[in-house]
Fold this sequence. Notes:
This protein is mainly α and 355 residues long. Helices cover 66% and strands 3% of the residues. It has 17 helices and three strands.
Amino acid sequence: xxxxxxxxxxxxxxxxxxxxxxxxxxxxxxxxxxxxxxxxxxxxxxxxxxxxxxxxxxxxxxxxxxxxxxxxxxxxxxxxxxxxxxxxxxxxxxxxxxxxxxxxxxxxxxxxxxxxxxxxxxxxxxxxxxxxxxxxxxxxxxxxxxxxxxxxxxxxxxxxxxxxxxxxxxxxxxxxxxxxxxxxxxxxxxxxxxxxxxxxxxxxxxxxxxxxxxxxxxxxxxxxxxxxxxxxxxxxxxxxxxxxxxxxxxxxxxxxxxxxxxxxxxxxxxxxxxxxxxxxxxxxxxxxxxxxxxxxxxxxxxxxxxxxxxxxxxxxxxxxxxxxxxxxxxxxxxxxxxxxxxxxxxxxxxxxxxx
Length: 355
């Protein structure tokens, strides 16, 4: 009887995949009934249930799962030859449960309407529009840097501890929801990841645990990056699965925050993305624009580059490639390259606004 049930569970992965593929064809349905229907309910329940814990419950689950899987594979290694059929059923039963839970609790959000459609923004832009917005961001970033440091050659030093910064993250969303009510953030659940060391060597600043809805932040990254990284992960919590869209919403939340250090992190974050796109289109123009930045901003950027350079290792490209493939499988065309779509959102949102 048990083996029969396992077979049914294992085979359930087939209709589950087909249902997900079907949902991908109906983004309006997903937007209405999942992203703005079921998901807000389940995600809030998870955040209110686990958010009060001072540690990452999801990281404990991952650590336990890794140990359990390795132990199971070791104990059942002989079954691969002697009882391969039932060994395979056990494996696919586990995969089916993980796949279904992953999608029910979060991943169907990958198939919602693109954010630019919800905001009535264009999906493309000209180089002239990109340059105009970049100039705005340079001016704003320079002003904030000088206001904080009182010297344009001095990098901005944050006066907070990392836990203090994480507590301030919801403040930006509390203000942002006045403009975008659907970005209301209830049930704070932002944690320093217990897996910060492996995250660093894999090249990741943070992640959302889809099964516990905890926003996990790599506590090793430079504090300059923390406001936008944490705001980005909260955007994932609110159902914006696409990395580019979470980047954009993270920018909005950070720059909406009344704290000037959040604003600095947010505007320089957007500026870096726009400069990168200018470099891709016109390297000479990129060099010219870079010279317009206050040296203090460049020093903050350099701190981040140095951090990742110091932790570069042979396995990082493997994890980046794997994650890029994961993004492509989950409806993000171009994988890691899809992050550039955030520039389209930034340009079309900011071009008619005064910063």
